[in-house]
Specification:
The complex is a heterotrimer of chains A (345), B (345) and C (427).
Chain A (H helix, E strand, L loop, with lengths): L1 E8 L6 H15 L3 E8 L7 H10 L8 E6 L11 E6 L6 H4 L9 H20 L2 E4 L2 H11 L4 E2 L18 E4 L9 H8 L7 E6 L4 H13 L6 E5 L4 H9 L3 E3 L10 H8 L4 E4 L15 E4 L3 H13 L1 H17 L4 H8 L2
Parallel strand pairs in A: 1-2, 1-3, 3-4, 4-5, 5-6, 7-8, 7-10, 8-9, 10-11, 11-12
Helix pairs in contact in A: 6-7, 6-10, 9-11
Chain B lengths: L1 E8 L6 H15 L3 E8 L4 H13 L8 E4 L12 E5 L21 H20 L2 E4 L2 H11 L4 E2 L18 E5 L8 H7 L8 E5 L5 H13 L6 E4 L5 H9 L3 E3 L10 H8 L4 E4 L5 H4 L6 E4 L3 H13 L1 H17 L4 H9 L1
Helix pairs in contact in B: 2-3, 5-6, 5-10, 8-11
Chain C lengths: L1 E6 L6 H15 L3 E6 L4 H4 L9 E3 L11 E6 L3 H4 L11 E4 L5 H11 L2 H12 L1 H9 L2 H11 L3 H5 L4 E4 L5 H7 L4 E3 L21 E6 L8 H10 L1 H6 E6 L4 H14 L4 E5 L3 H10 L2 E4 L10 H8 L4 E4 L2 H4 L7 E3 L4 H14 L1 H17 L3 H34 L7 H13 L4
Parallel strand pairs in C: 1-2, 1-4, 2-3, 4-5, 5-6, 6-7, 8-9, 8-11, 9-10, 11-12, 12-13
Helix pairs in contact in C: 1-18, 5-6, 10-12, 10-16, 14-17, 18-19
Classes of the chains: A alpha/beta (345), B alpha/beta (345), C alpha/beta (427).
């Protein structure tokens, strides 16, 4: 079966969606299909451009393709009989970000015309789809609320679960993932200034902006935590990251209102490590339950420090939570093989 | 620089255009540039041609892209202030193949109207480019004839010519290319009915045409050439190609009227082996000059046989031509430094 | 080229005669022509003009693939032109013989039985204020107001892939509505053989003739009042009108003549071609007034001028484009006084009548070559065919935008149109 994965492309900006598209193609090829990736350039500024972008996609034609799996606006508008949509996100500026006042679409008559055009094009596309999958409950809820369509939540799996086999717990908390103010790694640094046990903290990952790295370094310096907190900032290899996870006592991930589990969470669970998170971390809490598969704290340094100390002092607890986390995660059977199977059904 | 390479493609069909894009991207990255290789669909359905042209035309790559290099038509329609076109072929049915049996639609007013619009769009878009390059003189001539556009020939090099080397001038003529009717493996097999020396022939390559493959096998059997002609219908790895060329007497590459010289000719030249071709092979004759770096003979089995016998009996001649073949690549500037200089200046 | 030529094709229609002449020339140029009769109702049963081309009814909805191009001759007469199904897009080129086609519009509207659709079209083209006028105008003033405010040219032009117009004054309005190329081409009208000069009547009166269907826009009433205003005119001019006339209109005009004291006034009614020739031969002056001037170009005035008689016209529409000195022009806002002046001057000077008549005939003869028209029209048709793939492409973009709820005049579509012009500058 010839499967074309269709995604939007913002030239030279590569994020999670690009990674996912690449992994999807790889895994489609691995599990029985012949797959390729179509990336359609997308330029969304100024808002008027959105109309051109939609027309561009609508006038393309696809030939020599058996199935299409489309991931994002506006690429998913490309005409094809009965596409499978795996919506990573719609064009949020026309929907929830508009409502939150964070959109570049004006709230005047013209802005409304454009938003309505997007909504209509979206609705027509969704109505004709063979399958409507979304990547998280949040995306599914938005799709239902704004467009009235039901969808099946199909979470993106871990790309390389075999790397996260887990190992004996060491003496550090590991905080992975992108570094920015929304991910709130700074709270962990502050927590470390209150931690009583001798456990350390390793923060590793790519900062979104140079300023994000500077903030953390400053914070470590200010609290004199240079010997307790390791900052390994930048784009690290998967092996390096797996190494940090596998050898950790526990992992920490406390983003503000995340849409879904987050790869950091999945990696920790796969490796059987308990996870420290926050009560306002959104989708992470679908997997991490307090004192079951991890520790759910208040988003403040004190609460986090307490949780860190508990896990450090009570190794039985941390082992039990870690095992639960791994079992819980595996029971979801969130693998690429299963994902491909569902996408091609 | 942030360079976008844009080309049209047909999903799951991998032709020469793809290698140019991928290899150019590799070389640009090696030189420190950031590269996005963008493939956009294009289907030659008459009623859809102009709407798809419009899609290409509406594309906005001005943000984030410093330099646009377009390859396969109609990618050159994409507007950009810094556009260079490396033109590999027209939509030939509307150009030089208009008078051929390949055109299945009538030569009536309506289709002539479409033809005029295609030509006009091509001309407008090509004129905008800072420079237009082609992959052969054949294509340059066509651009001049049909679109009144001046262009510079920029020969596409191999990705890793250093893989190829010469070990000896052995007893075998090799033809390492896709096995298709227009590549005319059957002509070469026919020639082997008339060779007088013990020279052998090795044909290797994949095919999209199983009946042609069968035809070749029957031909070999019918003329009792099984002892001299080896035919392997399979994909050949780079290592294998290199090995086979290293020990060959010479190579053959004799497609019917092909625009470009073809990678097999370059591979052979890089391995210091003469190329045997015919007068009607098209672009190959830009590379191969008779008795300089190969033989260019009439497309007749006996003429081919005679040329092969001569090389078999005169290894010194084979060696001289082989060396000249390598030199020719330098003469024609077939290297990536030259390509990058021309495309990025 | 294979052309479908949609036209009325009965002997009473000037456009039919034009079509017969031009298609004959097109066939002589080597093209294949099929006549698609556009009459409806009983007029479709009228015998066709003689022609070498096959003749079928346009009602049968021609198969577009049979023809390289379809040409539609457009006139303001539903009985003659209503046989064309007015789809949103006609993929054809139109020849606008009439510029004001409000009667055709109303005939079409009656057939759709959807008055709201008609109102919506008028409102979209001309605005809410004009729509009110459309709805409220009295039958008597309707045509005059239509000419000023809602000629409906655009309603037809926007459905076409290209158009030909016969005069400059309505070129821009067709061009603004028609998505394809529009060109002005002077009407060729072979008309009648030129006639000699000498009047035949010996009654000592100067004969003024008006011919054509009698309706208010021919300004017959104004002529009567002009004659009435000066004793010399009343006594020495005989005014004849040849053309079909309703009993009510006859009564009305004869009453006005009687009231004004114009005795030398004769309504002939509908006349045969031969009788009309005789009347023209017997006339000294032809009065070819129009207000409003609905036609794109006037076959009647060409006929009048070809006859070698001095012609008086209204200074409006296509008549205004006739070179000065070849005809006498009256201002629409000063009809009666200008008429008086011109008639009196012509009355006084037989030499002037002769000079003007000769000059007019020479010019009109130059206009009369259908072979020229056929050749120039073909060049334009070629242009239209070449542009058609672009129009289809534009329509597909428009359709897509329409699916998103965008209006046809959305700035987005204008931007797309600019891209078209940018990529295809010659078209």
């Amino acid at each position: 079966m010839k499967v074309l994965v269709v995604n939007s492309l913002a030239p030279f900006l590569h994020g999670g969606a690009e990674e996912l598209a690449n992994n999807l193609v790889q895994n489609l090829n691995r599990y029985g299909a012949e797959a390729e990736l179509l990336r359609i350039p997308f330029s969304w500024d100024p808002a008027e451009r959105l109309l051109e972008e939609m027309l561009i996609c609508r006038q393309f034609q696809l030939w020599n393709v058996d199935r299409v799996i489309a991931l994002r606006f506006p690429a998913y508008l490309v005409p094809f009989q009965r596409k499978t949509l795996w919506i990573l996100h719609q064009f949020r500026q026309a929907y929830d970000l508009y409502d939150a006042g964070q959109s570049h679409l004006a709230s005047d008559a013209r802005g409304t015309v454009i938003r309505e055009a997007i909504r209509t094009a979206d609705n027509n596309c969704f109505a004709e789809a063979r399958h409507l999958f979304t990547n998280s409950p949040v995306t599914a809820e938005r799709l239902k609320r704004y467009n009235g369509f039901d969808s099946v939540v199909l979470r993106p799996p871990l790309n390389d679960p075999e790397l996260f086999a887990g190992d004996n717990p060491g003496n550090y908390i590991f905080a992975g993932g992108r570094i920015n103010s929304g991910k709130r790694q700074h709270l962990l640094v502050e927590a470390m200034s209150r931690v009583k046990s001798s456990v350390n903290l390793v923060i590793a990952g790519p900062p979104d902006q140079p300023g994000d790295a500077a903030t953390l370094r400053e914070l470590v310096a200010r609290h004199n935590l240079g010997d307790r907190v390791t900052l390994d900032l930048g784009l690290l290899s998967r092996h390096k990251i797996a190494g940090y996870v596998n050898g950790a006592l526990a992992c920490a991930y406390l983003p503000f209102d995340e849409d879904s589990f987050g790869y950091v969470t999945m990696e920790a669970c796969q490796a059987g490590k308990p996870m420290i998170t926050s009560s306002d971390s959104g989708g992470v809490l679908d997997l991490i339950l307090h004192e079951d598969t991890g520790m759910v704290c208040e988003p403040d340094a004190g609460s986090l420090a307490e949780a860190i100390d508990r896990l450090a002092h009570d190794r039985n607890l941390s082992r039990r939570l870690g095992d639960n986390a791994r079992n819980r995660w595996l029971s979801l059977n969130l693998t690429w093989e299963r994902t491909v199977e569902r996408l091609l059904s | 620089m942030r360079v976008a390479i844009c080309s049209s493609f047909v999903p799951f069909i991998h032709g020469g255009g793809r290698f140019i894009v991928e290899w150019l991207a590799t070389k640009l990255r090696e030189s420190g540039h950031q590269v996005e290789a963008v493939y956009l669909p294009f289907v030659e359905i008459n009623e859809q041609i102009l709407p798809q042209f419009l899609s290409y035309r509406l594309m906005d790559l001005s943000q984030n892209v410093d330099r646009l290099i377009t390859i396969r038509a109609p990618a050159h329609l994409i507007p950009h202030p810094n556009k260079k076109v490396w033109f590999i072929h027209h939509i030939r049915l509307f150009y030089d193949l208009w008078e051929s049996p390949y055109r299945k639609f009538p030569d009536d007013e309506r289709h002539r109207g479409l033809r005029r619009q295609i030509m006009e769009a091509d001309q407008t878009a090509l004129r905008e480019a800072r420079q237009v390059f082609t992959n052969s003189q054949v294509v340059s001539r066509r651009l001049q004839t049909y679109n009144k556009i001046e262009s510079e020939v920029l020969y596409p090099p191999l990705l890793e010519p250093e893989r190829f080397h010469c070990r000896e001038y052995g007893d075998e003529v090799v033809y390492l290319s896709r096995v298709e009717h227009h590549k005319r493996q059957h002509l070469l097999i026919e020639a082997f009915r008339y060779v007088k020396t013990p020279v052998k022939l090795r044909l290797c390559g994949v095919s999209s045409n199983s009946s042609y493959v069968l035809q070749l096998r029957l031909q070999i059997t019918r003329h009792q050439l099984l002892g001299r002609v080896s035919f392997e219908n399979r994909w050949v790895s780079e290592e294998e190609k290199s090995e086979l060329l290293a020990g060959a007497l010479c190579s053959a590459y004799l497609p019917q009227d092909e625009d470009s010289y073809g990678y097999p000719s370059l591979e052979s030249s890089s391995a210091e082996k003469a190329v045997l071709t015919t007068t009607d092979s098209g672009g190959v004759t830009e590379l191969v000059k008779d008795r300089y770096n190969g033989r260019v003979v009439e497309p007749e089995p006996k003429a081919l046989a005679s040329a092969i016998d001569e090389l078999y009996e005169n290894r010194e001649l084979a060696r001289q031509m082989g060396q000249a073949a390598r030199l020719r690549l330098t003469e024609l500037n077939i290297n990536w430094d030259h390509v990058l200089t021309r495309l990025l200046s | 080229m294979k052309l479908g030529w949609a036209t009325p094709f009965n002997a009473n229609s000037a456009i039919a005669r034009f079509s017969a002449d031009v298609t004959r020339e097109l066939i002589a140029l080597g093209h294949e022509v099929t006549i698609l009769r556009s009459e409806v109702g009983e007029d479709l049963a009228l015998p066709p003009l003689p022609s070498n081309a096959p003749i079928i009814s346009a009602n049968r909805k021609w198969n577009a693939d049979k023809f390289d191009l379809v040409v539609i001759n457009i006139g303001d007469n539903h009985a003659y032109h209503g046989g064309i199904s007015l789809n949103a897009k006609l993929h054809a080129v139109g020849i606008f013989h009439d510029w004001c086609i409000v009667n055709l519009f109303n005939g079409w509207l009656a057939g759709t039985r959807d008055q709201f659709q008609g109102d919506e079209i008028v409102r979209r083209l001309y605005g809410a204020a004009v729509l009110r006028q459309f709805q409220e105008a009295s039958p008597r003033d309707f045509l005059e107001i239509a000419g000023r405010l809602f000629p409906m040219t655009e309603w037809y032009a926007e459905r076409l892939d290209g158009a030909l117009v016969h005069s400059d004054f309505y070129l821009e309005s067709v061009r603004s509505a028609c998505p394809g190329p529009v060109m002005r081409l002077p009407l060729a009208y072979a008309g009648r053989t030129p006639m000699d000069q000498s009047p035949r009547r010996t009654d000592g009166l100067i004969h003024v003739l008006t011919f054509g269907m009698v309706n208010p826009n021919k300004r017959i009433e104004s002529v009567l009042r002009a004659l009435a205003a000066r004793p010399e005119l009343k006594e020495r001019i005989a005014y004849r009108v040849a053309g079909s006339v309703t009993p009510q209109e006859r009564t009305r005009l004869e009453r006005i003549a009687a009231e004004c004291g114009v005795t030398h006034f004769h309504l002939e009614g509908r006349v045969s071609d031969d009788l009309l020739d005789k009347l023209i031969r017997e006339s000294d002056i032809i009065c070819c007034l129009r207000f409003p001037a609905l036609e794109g170009s006037s076959a009647s005035v060409l006929e009048a001028m070809q006859s070698g008689r001095p012609v008086i016209v209204t200074d409006t529409g296509c008549y205004a484009e006739i070179p000065d000195g070849l005809v006498l022009k009256i201002r629409p806002q000063a009809e009666i006084s200008d008429l008086q002046q011109h008639l009196f001057a012509l009355l006084q000077s037989p030499d002037e009548r002769e000079r003007m008549g000769q000059a007019a005939a020479l010019w009109a003869r130059d206009q009369s070559d259908p072979a020229r028209y056929a050749r120039d029209a073909m060049a334009h048709f070629q242009r239209v065919i070449t542009t058609q793939p672009l129009l289809r492409c534009a329509e597909s973009a428009g359709r897509e935008a329409g699916l998103w709820g965008l209006e046809p005049n959305d700035p987005f579509l204008r931007r797309v149109a600019t891209q078209f012009e940018n990529l295809w500058p010659k078209s």
